[in-house]
Design brief:
The protein has 277 residues and is an all-alpha fold. The chain has one domain. Helix 4 crosses helix 9. The radius of gyration is 18 Å and the shape is globular. The chain is 77% helix and 0% strand.
């Protein structure tokens, strides 16, 4: 959990420092991490399981890859419009949404405190989303919330497949199509994929090695062994860690009231996902 919290907190900073468009940073993050996990899967002798995937699992992998690419592309683009602290808080509000989805569509049962926490988190998200009347802020909020919704879908479609594959085989099956989808989006938007400075390429490498391997890959390891909330709770630390790093490295600060709304959101998520009694 500590590795995940620290790894995730570095993601937004590396995206901003890269200076590259969001979909481009996402593309190289996914290409490099896909190569790493594929090599690890091959070294463990489990790459053959990918060749035996059923048509259903292949479709799940493609869907999971599409949603992961959307998550990265939308959220990373939001960082051009709003601060790291606000963007990360919004995109990481998905645990509360998972509870809402479970109640509405899967008839899951939750304790009253979990439902209350989810409601509080959603109030915090709403207040934070409306905390600045500027047009660019609204665009950034919509992009970040879109990234959050894509994250919910990514986690939902991959759960069943994860239980049938080991970690490195599963993430190879997801990361590779995600890289292809993100590259296609970058090209469709007319972005340059190749000609960047050494600093930018180091940021791409950092995104693959730290938040991708130490964050998403570890999270996917846990998803095969624990429920969604227990597997992803470490991301609650990301808004705080990212906000601190953004202030120290990027000199970013936000309005005091936005800190208050962030605190409301995180308190609600904490109430919703931390085991009670």
């Amino acid at each position: 959990m500590a590795v995940m919290a620290v790894s995730f907190s570095s993601a937004a900073i590396l995206v901003v420092l890269s200076g590259a468009p969001g979909p481009v940073a996402a593309t190289w993050r996914l290409i490099i991490s896909s190569a790493i996990v594929a090599i690890l899967a091959w070294a463990r002798g489990s790459i053959s399981s990918l060749l035996k995937l059923s048509r259903r699992d292949l479709m799940i992998a493609l869907a999971g890859g599409l949603f992961l690419a959307m998550h990265f592309d939308l959220w990373m683009t939001s960082l051009r419009y709003i601060s790291v602290a606000v963007s990360v808080t919004l995109v990481d509000s998905y645990p509360a949404v998972l509870i809402v989805v479970g109640l509405a569509f899967f008839k899951e049962k939750y304790r009253p405190l979990e439902v209350l926490g989810s409601a509080i988190a959603m109030v915090g998200v709403a207040l934070l989303s409306l905390s600045d009347p500027g047009d660019s802020f609204a665009i950034g909020v919509l992009l970040s919330l879109g990234g959050m919704a894509a994250m919910v879908l990514y986690l939902s479609v991959g759960k069943s497949m994860r239980t049938r594959l080991d970690t490195f085989s599963y993430v190879t099956a997801i990361y590779a199509p995600a890289a292809a989808f993100s590259a296609a989006a970058s090209l469709a938007l007319g972005y340059n994929l190749l000609y960047y400075s050494v600093k930018t390429w180091l940021c791409f490498l950092g995104l693959a090695l730290v938040p991708m391997m130490g964050g998403h890959t570890v999270m996917n390891y846990l998803i095969g062994r624990r429920n969604f909330i227990a597997s992803t709770i470490a991301m609650m630390a990301e808004p705080v860690g990212s906000a601190v790093l953004a202030y120290l490295i990027l000199g970013q600060s936000i309005l005091f009231i936005q800190y208050v709304y962030m605190a409301v959101t995180l308190a609600g998520i904490g109430l919703a996902v931390v085991p009670q009694g």
